[in-house]
């Protein structure tokens, strides 16, 4: 330790480690650090291939791929594993021997599990798990292999050219069979399940529950129909903080009295049944001392002497010349305030649905993810 901390002038130490944080700070402070990048998988395979070719060792390409994957970007670890695999296989490198030595699973086993999920075949998935359990695997490792395969499937859905052999054809087939949202959901469930699997009472039971969760909570694409392509027309500018205002043209009133009554009825400081009586009435005639109203027969339950008297008193406070109010039950000839409010609300709702349907993000979600809009609600300020 003393020599490392205070080396002689003519001595240079070259230290290599995968865990520099374990070195004492007194040593790290005296070192010039170079962080070496992990080697790509294909580069490690090429290097291992050159070695076994030069040594005249019989090998399978898949066996070298398994060794390179286990090395996790470290050429030093790959060479150590290569020596062990050669000794384990008595001078030959087969994928079966290497897989047995590493304790890894056949990729076909993981592929069959994903195929079962894609087909929504619960009995088949449980049968695959039963056969898998006979090999006494590490189910955390199995989940890691599943995550790796799901990542390749997701990449194949976006950029098919990234798929490489082996198993490239099977991955492309699964990429077509599974929807993107299913792949993302399976990946998230597997990722969280890998974290929580040690908490399960028994690894196989925890793994089975995780697979059943994928089957239970997957999106039901069978009931989703392809949304029709939205027509192309002008899309309004997005509104952030300001309320969307809709200009709804009022139809020309048949009489000035009906038009005036809409504003008068909505300005009356009343609520409940009294408010409903006021807005469902039509002002048919406005004489100097008497106002004549019509109330539709379907709303006659709103009319009572007490409510009529309250309406009359409120109007007398505003109009001193008014002496009486007459309300007859008959079909109105013009639009009542209640009908006008309903028409304006329907127009605003129609406008809001149109704005949402033509939003670029909504159009993208409909086309790419088969999204559907079931309801558009307007927020009403008090």
From TrEMBL:
Biological classification of the source: Bacteria, Pseudomonadati, Pseudomonadota, Gammaproteobacteria, Thiotrichales
Bias (Polar residues) ranges: 238-248
Region Disordered, annotated ranges: 229-261
Domain DNA polymerase III tau subunit: 255-374
Keyword Nucleotidyltransferase appears in the UniProt entry: yes
Domain DNA polymerase III subunit gamma/tau helical lid: 44-91
Catalytic reaction(s) noted: DNA(n) + a 2'-deoxyribonucleoside 5'-triphosphate = DNA(n+1) + diphosphate
Residues annotated as signal peptide: none
CDD domains attached to this UniProt entry: HLD_clamp_pol_III_gamma_tau
Molecular functions (GO terms): ATP binding; DNA binding; DNA-directed DNA polymerase activity; metal ion binding
Sequence similarity: Belongs to the DnaX/STICHEL family.
Protein name, entry field: DNA-directed DNA polymerase
A Gene Ontology BP annotation from the UniProt entry: DNA-templated DNA replication
Key words, A-Z: ATP-binding, DNA-directed DNA polymerase, Metal-binding, Nucleotide-binding, Nucleotidyltransferase, Transferase, Zinc
EC number of the protein: 2.7.7.7
UniProt domain DNA polymerase III gamma subunit: residue ranges: 94-216
């Amino acid at each position: 330790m003393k020599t490392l901390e205070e080396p002689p002038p003519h001595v240079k130490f070259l230290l290599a480690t995968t865990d520099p944080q374990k070195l004492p700070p007194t040593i790290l402070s005296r070192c010039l650090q170079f962080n070496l990048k992990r080697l790509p998988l294909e580069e490690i395979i090429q290097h291992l291939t050159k070695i076994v070719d030069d040594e005249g060792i019989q090998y399978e390409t898949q066996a070298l791929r398994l060794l390179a994957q286990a090395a996790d970007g470290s050429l030093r670890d790959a060479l150590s594993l290569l020596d062990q695999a050669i000794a384990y296989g008595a001078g030959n490198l087969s994928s079966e021997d290497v897989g047995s030595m590493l304790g890894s699973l056949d990729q076909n086993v993981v592929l069959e599990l994903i195929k079962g999920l894609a087909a929504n075949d619960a009995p088949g998935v449980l049968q695959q798990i039963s056969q898998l359990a006979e090999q006494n695997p590490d189910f955390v490792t199995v989940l890691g292999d599943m995550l790796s395969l799901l990542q390749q499937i997701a990449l194949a859905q976006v950029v098919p050219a990234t798929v490489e052999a082996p198993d490239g054809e099977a991955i492309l087939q699964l990429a077509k069979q599974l929807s993107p949202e299913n792949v993302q959901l399976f990946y998230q469930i597997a990722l969280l399940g890998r974290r929580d699997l040690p908490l399960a009472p028994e690894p196989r039971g925890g793994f089975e529950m995780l697979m059943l969760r994928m089957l239970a909570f997957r999106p039901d694409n069978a009931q989703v129909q392809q949304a029709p392509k939205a027509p192309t027309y002008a899309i309004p500018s997005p509104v952030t903080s300001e309320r969307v205002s809709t200009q709804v043209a009022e139809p020309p009133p048949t009489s000035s009295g009906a038009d005036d009554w809409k504003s008068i009825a909505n300005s009356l400081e009343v609520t409940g049944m009294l408010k409903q009586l006021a807005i469902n009435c039509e002002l048919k005639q406005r004489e100097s001392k008497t106002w004549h109203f019509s109330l539709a027969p379907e709303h006659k339950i709103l009319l009572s002497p007490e409510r009529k008297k309250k309406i009359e008193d409120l109007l007398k406070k505003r109009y001193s010349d008014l002496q009486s109010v007459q309300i007859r039950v008959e079909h109105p000839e013009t639009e009542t305030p209640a009908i006008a409010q309903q028409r304006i609300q329907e127009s605003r709702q129609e406008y809001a649905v149109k704005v949402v349907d033509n939003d670029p993000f909504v159009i993208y979600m409909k086309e790419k993810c088969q999204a559907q809009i079931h309801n558009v609600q307007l927020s009403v300020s008090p």
